[in-house]
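Title: Prediction job returns without error message
Component: structure pipeline
Severity: low
Priority: P3
Assignee: unassigned

Description:
Job completed but the reporter wants confirmation the result is attached to the right record. Sequence as submitted:
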Amino acid sequence: MGNNTNDRNWAAMERLRFIEACAWWKGIVQRQDLVGVFGVSMAQASSDLQRYLELNPAAFVYNLRKKRYEAMPEMKCILTVPNLDEAVSRFLDGDARGTWISNDDAGGGRVSVLQMPVRKAAVEVERRIFLAILNGFRIKVRYASINSGKEEWRWLRPHALGHNGGRWHVRAWCEKNGDFRDFTLSRIGEIEWSREVTELPAKDKDWETWVTLKVTPHKDLTIEQRKAVERDFAMTGGTLKLKVRKAMEGYLRDRLGLAMADGKMPVRLLEIR
């Protein structure tokens, strides 16, 4: 006979986390919530609610007239870290088991999710790049360069992956240019299969070097605007410190709308007409 103790403990903990999420985000918890989501009995739901109150007595109180538990303003979460995305997915414009609400099906117009264009490489490209990084393979790729405006074959020696918040790129030694460069995966049309192991000709100093950017509100903002920006980015003493690899600094500056160190902004590839 199998031992279901761990499974039962896991299921019980999931119900307790659900109770906490309901109280935190909805402000109320009812036995019917647990029955509807987990299929437990009313008696089990009552037991779970009492168990949570033992763990977190200041979380909520029972409203006898409305027959429900109501969250206290000073409630603290002890089993979960509150996450707005999860709250939207679980509770807003749907039932407790709701799925993510897209821009097209947000019931009642209370949620709208911006759908950005997906810049995704072919799975075969992703696989071979991953294998090359993992095993130190030298590979030949057909790459469409924005800078040169040409699509051509070139030899790369990949050693790392980077994500700029919108797309993946591979960090690799480019034999054509004789230095380390970033290559966007979605611009790779083909990769020849290779198991040729090779050493990097040099250290990628920009990848190995970490820099700390000290971000502050713009000097031209009013005092009130600066305070708003400081609160928006959770700054300490009017400064936000961000640690990033030197090779990724340009992407971070671009995402934050900051100028490059030389005063120039990265080239924009899209425009709104």
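Comment from assignee: result matches the submitted record. The domain at 5-82 is CATH 1.10.10 (Arc Repressor Mutant, subunit A).
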